[in-house]
Structures are given as structure tokens and as C-alpha cells.
Design a protein that fits this description.
Strand order of the largest sheet: 3-4-2-1-14-13
Order of helices and strands: EHEHEEEEEHEHEHEHEEHEE
Distance between the termini: 6 Å
Radius of gyration: 17 Å
Strand content: 25-35%
Structural class: alpha+beta
Number of helices: 7
Helix content: 10-25%
Length: about 260
């Protein structure tokens, strides 16, 4: 089974690019973030033609998450209870014996902004939600907007204390791991300095100025099935003249 997560930065703007990726990489289950569309405007037919069923929690022009699956989808769930004002940021389903959920965590904007406090509260509620599910085979993936360690930032320890790199944000990420999840990429690549997001500006991708903020988190039974995990850096580059998202997909192959 191949699973993946990807912040596509607008599903309609990136549709042809996503199609190329799906045809080349052929993942079985994908969590998409920042789709920026409601259900009525989502290009369902394109994904159906490629063999994917869609579970969607959309929002017009902002946020929005979706799960694509080549396997039969059983029951699904949408939204984080008590966090409706923060927008459409969580969706999941039972697929092939796996609980698969994807999230687009709030950005926080700046340490002084009220959204930063909201971000921390959202992450607290996410950890509570996941703990309550008592999941066996499970994956929680997405764009978490947190840099867990200095090695996950191009600036290293020089960025400590800045947005995405604070003790407060990192403690929330650690709480997710404490809720029975493992960072699959880091487990399989313990010493790798690799990134999943690069700003469009100032040649950040070319100069390697990135952050690792996109994760596949898995329960212990899932971790035991993992063969490899990679950041699909090649799909942060243009393809056939099409502009990529500012995020690269993260892919894991499971037994």
C-alpha cells in the first residue's frame, strides 16, 4: 500500500499537475490539504476517472482538506469538534482496515497574533481527538505548520523561538507523538536534513531554504509495516510548464 500527503495550494489551480503526479506515483490513499474549494466546485470527475473515490471537507477559497482513495471507503468523518470557526481542516475515513485522516493545521501568522493562540488550542484539540479514537492501524497526515526540530529547518537552531519553531508549537507536536503516533519519515530517516516546503520567493527552493512541516504520522502497527518514506522533491519542480505547489508530497510504502 502506498500512502501520501500533499498540500496542493489550490486543487483547481493545480489539477493538471496533480493528475501527472497521481499517474506517475500511483498512491493508493492520499491526504490533500489547502484545496481551497467547496464540494460543488471540486473536480470530482477528474479523480474518479483516475480511479479515486473522494472524501471531502471543503471551504471556498481557503483551507479545505480531502482524502483520495483507490480502495473502498467505509465510514468517514469531518471537522474537529469545537473548532468550527477555524475552518475546514480535518477529514478522514476507514479504508482497507486503516483509519486515515488528514489535517491542515492553522498557520498562526505571528507570535503576537491572536491566531497563534488559536493554533495552539487547535493542536491541543487534535491530540485529544486522536487519543479518543483508540486507533489500531492509523495514519494522521497533513500540513502541521510546525517544525519539530532544528534539523527540520534550513536555519537550524537560529530559527528557534520563531513562528513554527517555538517551544509551544513543538510541545503540541510532541503531544501528538505521545498520543500514540510516530513521525514515519524521521523514524526511517533519523539523520536526514530534508524539507517539504519552500517559499516561492527569493529562490528558496533553489537555495535549499525550506522547512519540514508536512508529516505522515502513524500508529505502531503502521510503523511496523513501513518500508520507506520519502519527500517527493521532484514534484516541487515545474512539470510540463505547470507551476508546482510550494509543498512537496510525502510518500510512504507499507507492507
Amino acid at each position: 500500500m502506498r500512502v501520501a500527503t500533499w498540500n496542493v495550494n489550490g486543487v483547481r489551480a493545480r489539477l493538471d499537475f496533480i493528475r501527472i503526479w497521481l499517474q506517475e506515483r500511483r498512491p493508493d490513499i492520499v491526504g490533500l490539504q489547502e484545496i481551497k474549494t467547496e464540494a460543488d466546485d471540486f473536480p470530482h470527475s477528474t479523480f474518479e476517472e483516475l480511479g479515486y473515490e473522494v472524501v471531502l471537507h471543503g471551504q471556498k477559497g481557503w483551507n479545505g482538506v480531502a482524502v483520495l482513495s483507490r480502495l473502498p471507503v467505509e465510514d468517514s468523518f469531518r471537522g474537529l469538534a469545537g473548532q468550527e470557526e477555524m475552518g475546514a481542516r480535518l477529514v478522514g475515513a476507514s479504508i482497507g482496515g486503516l483509519t486515515f485522516a488528514t489535517v491542515y493545521c492553522p498557520n498562526g501568522k505571528s507570535l503576537e497574533h491572536e491566531d497563534f493562540v488559536g493554533k495552539l488550542a487547535w493542536l491541543d484539540d487534535l491530540a485529544t481527538f486522536w487519543s479518543a479514537q483508540n486507533v489500531g492501524q492509523g495514519i494522521l497526515c497533513g500540513d502541521f505548520n510546525v517544525v519539530p526540530q532544528a534539523v527540520d529547518s534550513w536555519r537550524g537552531e537560529d530559527a528557534d523561538g520563531q513562528i513554527f519553531h517555538t517551544v509551544e508549537e513543538r510541545s503540541r507536536f510532541d503531544a501528538l507523538l505521545g498520543a500514540g503516533l510516530a513521525d514515519l519519515f524521521r523514524e526511517k530517516n533519523p539523520d536526514s536534513r530534508a524539507f517539504s516546503w519552500w517559499d516561492y520567493r527569493a529562490g528558496a527552493f533553489r537555495f535549499g531554504h525550506g522547512l519540514r512541516i508536512d508529516f505522515l504520522l502513524g500508529t505502531p502497527p503502521v510503523l511496523a509495516r513501513v518500508n520507506q518514506v520519502e519527500i517527493d522533491r521532484d514534484f516541487r519542480k515545474k512539470k510540463e510548464g505547470l507551476t508546482a505547489s510550494d509543498h512537496a508530497p510525502v510518500i510512504a510504502d507499507l507492507d
